[in-house]
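FORM 12-B: Structure-to-Sequence Request
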């Protein structure tokens, strides 16, 4: 039997300096449940430290977790990168951490970067400023993510800041898993790519404010991957 699943593939936790401190993985998973979200991704800026707690909290609430991060490239372009397993995402996270310059965060200016466990106990603070650009080019990042079996999705391409359009002036015709827009329909060039919309939530109230849909018999990462590849995503 076919079901219509709600997916939200771009969200930040309290680890992102711009994310609210209330935005713990447990609050996120509870809010997602309330909003009827079936599959949710955690995509903090340039770090994967809250993914282990996110996995546990999603399990508690019956949400299908997708593990990722939002990488800032050399050109200051944001790209949502998603992986098939927690381990693959954590491994890619370590690679990105290594490519992030050694500029310390100033919490008073940029906000806290908090790693928590599933019960909201603080496990640590990330010292490098996660809003810096990493030393990886847009094109190389897309290739690296795809070669690790991941999904590479240029984020909010219709935004005036930190988007491929704002930073490069156009969307290079590469092999993306999808492109993310804030407003749909869009007047931006998207070529033949599948278009998705996601919340990009930094506060609990924003979770589920923009979602996409998949009609399928079941839902997991491979179903998601196939739906993106064959343009089987519906938008509201
Ligand atoms: Zn972004
Ligand atoms: Zn974001």
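FORM 12-B RESPONSE
SEQUENCE OUT:
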């Amino acid at each position: 039997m076919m079901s219509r699943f709600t997916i939200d593939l771009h969200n930040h936790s309290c680890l992102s300096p711009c994310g609210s401190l209330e935005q713990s993985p447990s609050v996120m998973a509870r809010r997602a449940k309330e909003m009827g979200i079936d599959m949710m991704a955690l995509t903090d800026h340039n770090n994967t430290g809250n993914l282990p707690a996110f996995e546990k909290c999603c399990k508690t609430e019956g949400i299908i977790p997708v593990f990722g991060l939002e990488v800032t490239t050399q050109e200051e372009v944001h790209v949502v990168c998603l992986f098939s397993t927690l381990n693959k995402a954590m491994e890619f996270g370590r690679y990105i951490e290594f490519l992030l310059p050694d500029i310390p965060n100033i919490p008073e200016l940029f906000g806290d970067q908090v790693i928590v466990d599933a019960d909201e106990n603080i496990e640590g603070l990330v010292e490098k400023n996660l809003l810096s650009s990493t030393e990886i080019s847009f094109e190389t990042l897309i290739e690296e993510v795809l070669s690790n079996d991941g999904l590479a999705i240029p984020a909010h391409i219709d935004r005036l800041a930190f988007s491929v359009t704002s930073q490069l002036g156009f969307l290079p015709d590469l092999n993306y898993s999808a492109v993310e827009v804030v407003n749909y329909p869009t007047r931006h060039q998207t070529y033949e790519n599948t278009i998705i919309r996601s919340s990009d939530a930094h506060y609990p109230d924003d979770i589920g404010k923009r979602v996409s849909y998949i009609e399928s018999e079941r839902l997991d990462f491979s179903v998601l991957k196939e739906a993106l590849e064959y343009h089987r995503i519906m938008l509201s």
